[in-house]
């Protein structure tokens, strides 16, 4: 079980990604995973499949969401976060007014 959140990794919207030190368009399905799931960069540039809203979507892991500090005014990443670009929310066909948090499952993509 995970919580899908929304994040921007595009230039001007967020920071460059940890995996390739590049920015990624909000129109590209990319995610940042909580520290434990990021697994010391072992999932970098690999796809995961996200299951939510009765649908599934593949996204590439490009960053981590630092969950080692817990949640406070400066850290908003718990240990069960899949922080996703707008493209992932669109692929899951979640109405825009509901973007923010969604309970999901995910797995490493096969293929």
UniProtKB/TrEMBL annotation:
Major place of residence: secreted
Keywords: Secreted, Signal
Protein's UniProt keywords contain Coiled coil: no
Cellular localization per UniProt: Secreted
GO cellular component labels: extracellular region
InterPro entries hit by this protein: Kiwellin-like, RlpA-like_sf
Pfam families (alphabetical): KWL1
Family: Belongs to the kiwellin family.
Name assigned to this protein: Ripening-related protein 2
Organism (species): Nicotiana attenuata
Lineage: Eukaryota, Viridiplantae, Streptophyta, Embryophyta, Tracheophyta
């Amino acid at each position: 079980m995970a919580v899908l959140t929304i994040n921007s990794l595009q230039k001007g919207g967020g920071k460059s990604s940890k995996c390739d030190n590049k920015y990624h368009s909000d129109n590209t399905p990319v995610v940042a995973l909580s520290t434990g799931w990021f697994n010391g960069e072992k999932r970098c540039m690999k796809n995961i499949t996200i299951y939510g809203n009765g649908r599934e979507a593949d996204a590439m892991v490009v960053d981590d969401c630092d969950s080692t500090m817990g949640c406070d005014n400066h850290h908003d990443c718990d240990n069960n976060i899949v922080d996703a670009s707008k493209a992932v929310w669109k692929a899951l066909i979640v109405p825009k007014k509901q973007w923010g948090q969604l309970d999901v499952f995910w797995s490493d993509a096969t293929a």
